Amino acid sequence: MTTTTMTHDEAHHHDAPKGWRRWLFSTNHKDIGTLYLLFALTMLFLGGASAMLIRMELFQPGIQLLQPDLYNNLVTNHALIMIFGAVMPAAAGLANWMIPMMIGAPDMALPRMNNLSFWILPAAATMLVLSFIVPFFPGGGTQINTGWTLYPPLSIQVGMSMDFLIFAIHLLGISSVLASINIIVTLLNMRAPGMTLFKMPIFCWSWLVTAFLLILVVPVLAGGVTMLLLFQHLFWFFGHPEVYILLLPSIGVLSHVIPAFSRKPLFGYNSMVGAMLAVATIGMVVWAHHQYTIGMSLGAVTYFMIGTILISIPVGLMIFNFIATMWRGAMTFETPMLFAVAIILMFTFGGLSGVMLAVVPADMQYQDSMFVVAHFHYVLMPGAVFGLFAGVFYWLPKWTGHMYDEKLGKLFFWINVIGFNITFFPQHFLGLAGMPRRIVDYNVMFTEFNVISSIGAMIFGLSHLLLLYIIIKTIRGGKKAESRAWEGAKGLEWELDSPPAFHTWTVAPQVK
Amino acid sequence: MSKRLYRYLATLLFAGLVGLPSAHAEYGLNFPEPAAGVAQEIYDIHMLTMSIATLLLVIVFAIVFYSLYFHRKSRGYEPDQNFHNSWFGHWSWVIVPVLVLGVDLTIAGKADTVLKEVWEVPKEENIMDVKVTGHQWWWEFDYLDHGIKVESRFLPKEESGDLYLREVDHRLVLPTGTKIRFLHTSADVLHAFWVPELAVKKDAIPGYVTETWAELNREGVFRGQCAELCGTWHSRMPIVVESVSPQQFAAWVNDQKAIKVAAAAEASADKTWSLDELFAKGKGLYETKCAACHQVTGMGLPPAFPALNGSKIVNGPLKDHLHIVLNGKEGTAMQSWSALNDLEIASIITYERNAWDNKTGDVVQPADVKQAR
Amino acid sequence: MNTSDYQSQELRRKNIRLAWVLAGLALFFLVTSFPFWGGLFKLIGTQAVQ
Question: Which one of A344, A451, B128, B269 is separated from A352 by 20 to 30 angstroms, measured CA to CA?
């Protein structure tokens, strides 16, 4: 069956249109996936640059580099760009590339809508950048000094730049809802014959859950930013599931990377699916742990505390399954696997400080301090971004047809992970000692750890230039990748050529 | 500098290796020593959860590193393809959640007890009420039982030195051994009152009043900062609690009352003030109350905070100037200043209309302000 | 050349129908988020006075 499919694909190999039309009018899942990934990479550098400016300002006490409103605007932009510009599009890019290839479908179910949901993104990014620029012109309002939470009444003081930002958020929301609809339809209707839901690769499951979460919570954010009323509850009803939206695709990636490099099947397929569903469900109903200090009734906070602590059960199960997959495997440590191991260790650390934060009385101290900043970077960097790095390195040979430079990949991993830890580990101490987050200037007592953190941030930030170099180098050439680029890799996508033909699985494979 | 840096790097490594509990206090690695009963319990639960977390982390790290070392292809380890089909593979989805649930319940059980104490303000007759109002960017403390009010603003670097951003002009003075209820609210945007030694943190939300409480158990000076992003000068909202004995507190209250009476007497005196007197008074008041936004130079920080130097309102009709100071301006950071007395407003306005390049020559008397209210 | 040309008419109809159902779900959440949250906010109640 597989061989006949290959020859069929060959015939269409030269279908790819040439020039800008190929990209602007593309309905091909691979091209759109590439666009998503390139967009995410651009935004990663934009968001990273703002983070580095923030850390440069915090290098020493005093206001040296950035005026307070500019600083706060960068804090706002860093969050929004990283979440909506870098992580979500990168995950969507992986989904676009891999889901049809994994389930044996010729393309996404709604290819034209796929084109639309990508091309909304650059428009949204432009609006976001404009919201940063308009305050420099008369009548443009002030810089957006609210942080990404945009709490009123502070957000009402801002003016025109806020209108641009709200429009940008609406566009981003529309884009991700459209992409989610497409993914769900693809997963439910387009699977190859014989591939039941419970034979679907875990990456597909993770996106099925993520897409449903997006459809449920993004409209609520849209409602929230429009009416600016009771906004904290609305914001976090979106904001907390958003954390799992960022996390789950990476969990999906890990469920492929770890078995591949341990050379044995994933431990606990069913419990993995169950854990993802449980995380999504519980994650929808515990939002208020982001706002313990707003003055809820005792009953309400008790509920939110216990609910939040219970999230550790499915998340613990995921981590356990990963470790059990490695256990008694025959591991090798290529770059994707190195990232996977780092994720297991550091995400566990971030998850445990999350349990500490869930405890309401103790959160009276942690809330809105640098401890929280350290915690969520420990969750989101390993949990989301490193997972995406692992995925990119894992599938790069499949996409480009070339193996990336393994030495450089490992070098990138070590600089990146060490830089990350130097940046964020000291912030725990800052928070406990009493440094609030989002301040532009601080007392001399906080100097030492801020110096360390800023040095780490420079290393961490600049290391991504190496990532860029590796990716460009791999696209341009390198050792030819085989169809099954990794010894232990399993799944339909590895039965296609590297790089795959422009149209693949035009005749669906039969899954046994 | 570099020597200090090395010392901290070494501490960091040390703390990372042996877990946080063993190395705190002198390097500011952990919470400062609590100064209230509930704060101590919060501190204890923090240490408990952190110890549990550290222990679990050590276990996970140990298992992962064992596996990383022994289960490697380069050591010739053959993968166990049926590991997930063993009894362990079939039942781990029950075993693991049960174990995690056990840990969760340990934490939640302890947390629940402490939570009740933190959350429920004791119902007592003699509890002392302090209303804490957040403003952009200063704190107002109303001692509701004593009828006095303290305005607390950050001190510029020249006056506070090493305590810059951790020191204020007027501290929140509180007695030890007394149950104090804080009533939190805000005049403009969200703020949050946070003093780590008291373990009190609550958002100040305009239009709402929320409660917290504390009972100080030792004297001392405890410093905190505003913890909710509140705009431009969020970093300049320190909170300094001065904990004193009840006797000292009573003496302090009397002092404050005397000051208040003297100020009121001065303001209501039927005196006509000269330009110079009002200008001198107004300069001091302007620089504490107005200069955070409009700047000492009167140039403001446009576009958020307009310049007063050469402003149309300041150089225009007096009526409009009085109106904006007394009522604030909707949708901006400019709030109503009607809580100030007539003399204070008169001197601020006189100062603004005659300072910098503004040369209106207007002298505003307290009586004019009274009429405008 | 559009890859949806590989879809049969029947599959295409099925896909579009499911997409509309999901869009309806999203719209439902958008519309209900307004009154729903007002009500839930009152239900949770706050210890806040007024």
Answer: A451
CA distance C36 to chain A (A): 10
What's the full length of chain A, in residues?
512
**How many Å apart are CA A8 and CA A16, to the nearest integer?**
15
Return the axis-axis angle of helices A447-476 and B2-18, rounded to nearest 10°: 80
Residue partners of B292: CB distance under 8 A and separation at least 6: B137, B138, B153, B233, B236
As given in the structure block, the two tokens for residue A125 are 């990014």
Determine the residue among A174, A176, A220 to mutate to test chain C binding: the one whose Cβ has the most chain C Cβ atoms within 10 Å.
A220
Q: Which residues on adjacent β-strands are paired with residue A480? A: A402
* Per-residue model confidence as pLDDT tens digits over A415-433: 999 999 999 999 999 999 9
Beta-carbon contacts of A38 under 8 Å, excluding residues fewer than 6 positions away, are none
Dihedral of the alpha carbons of B278, B284, B286, B291, in degrees to the nearest 10: 160
Give me the interface pTM, i.e. the ipTM. 0.90
Tokens found for residue B262: 């003297």
Tokens of A309: 């602590």
Give partners of C (≥3 CB pairs < 8 A). Answer: A, B
Distance between CA atoms of A393 and A407, rounded to whole angstroms?
Answer: 12
Any residues with CB less than 8 A from the CB of B370 and at least 6 apart, and which?
A: B342
Mean pLDDT in residue range A18-47: 93
User: Which two tokens mark A33?
Assistant: 């996936």
CA distance B51 to B20: 9
Q: What is the pTM of this model?
A: 0.88
- By Cβ distance, the residue of B119, B209, B211 closest to C50 is B209
Per residue in A250-300, pLDDT (tens digit) is 999 999 999 999 999 999 999 999 999 999 999 999 988 998 888 888 888
- Rounded Cα distance between B171 and B164, Å, is 14
Structure tokens, A338 = 């190195």
Q: For A220, which of C23, C33, C45 is closest by C-beta distance? A: C33
pLDDT digits (tens, 9 = 90+) for C18-42: 999 999 999 888 887 766 666 666 6
